[in-house]
């Protein structure tokens, strides 16, 4: 989606570059009162990608800000 919008407006795109996956591990007791040795393990994996857009125009920036992003996906735009 982001690459299509940037390419359609004439910007140069490099990426997506996969960044290292962050893992968050949680250990939870199965029972609050007994069986302290019985535990459940849960894991959340966070996948990140880096997309570099060069030769950015005002039209490209406007179209990126209007882009509908699915739930659970976060996008950060940084101007350098």
UniProtKB/TrEMBL annotation:
The record's keywords, sorted A to Z, are: Ribonucleoprotein, Ribosomal protein
Cytoplasm is among the record's keywords: no
**Please, which domain of life does this record's source organism belong to?**
Eukaryota
* Example of a GO cellular component annotation carried by this entry: ribosome
Q: Pfam families, from UniProt?
A: Ribosomal_S10
Q: Which PROSITE patterns match?
A: RIBOSOMAL_S10
GO terms (molecular function) for this protein are:
RNA binding; structural constituent of ribosome
GO process terms (BP): translation
Matches recorded under InterPro entries = Ribosomal_uS10 (IPR001848), Ribosomal_uS10_CS (IPR018268), Ribosomal_uS10_dom (IPR027486), Ribosomal_uS10_dom_sf (IPR036838)
Domain Small ribosomal subunit protein uS10, residue spans: 2-78
Alphabetized HAMAP family for the sequence: Ribosomal_uS10 (MF_00508)
UniProt lists the family membership as follows: Belongs to the universal ribosomal protein uS10 family.
List the PANTHER family.
30S RIBOSOMAL PROTEIN S10 FAMILY MEMBER (PTHR11700)
The record's section on NCBIfam families has: PRK00596.1 (NF001861), rpsJ_bact (TIGR01049)
What is the designated name of this protein? Answer: Small ribosomal subunit protein uS10 domain-containing protein
Q: Which organism is it from?
A: Ostreobium quekettii
């Amino acid at each position: 989606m982001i690459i299509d919008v940037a390419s359609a407006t004439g910007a140069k795109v490099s990426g997506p570059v996969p960044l290292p996956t962050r893992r968050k591990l949680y250990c939870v007791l199965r029972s609050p009162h007994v069986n302290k040795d019985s535990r459940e393990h849960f894991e959340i994996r966070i996948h990140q990608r880096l997309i570099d857009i060069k030769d950015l125009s005002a039209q490209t920036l406007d179209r990126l800000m209007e882009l509908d992003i699915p739930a659970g996906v976060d996008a950060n735009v940084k101007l350098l």
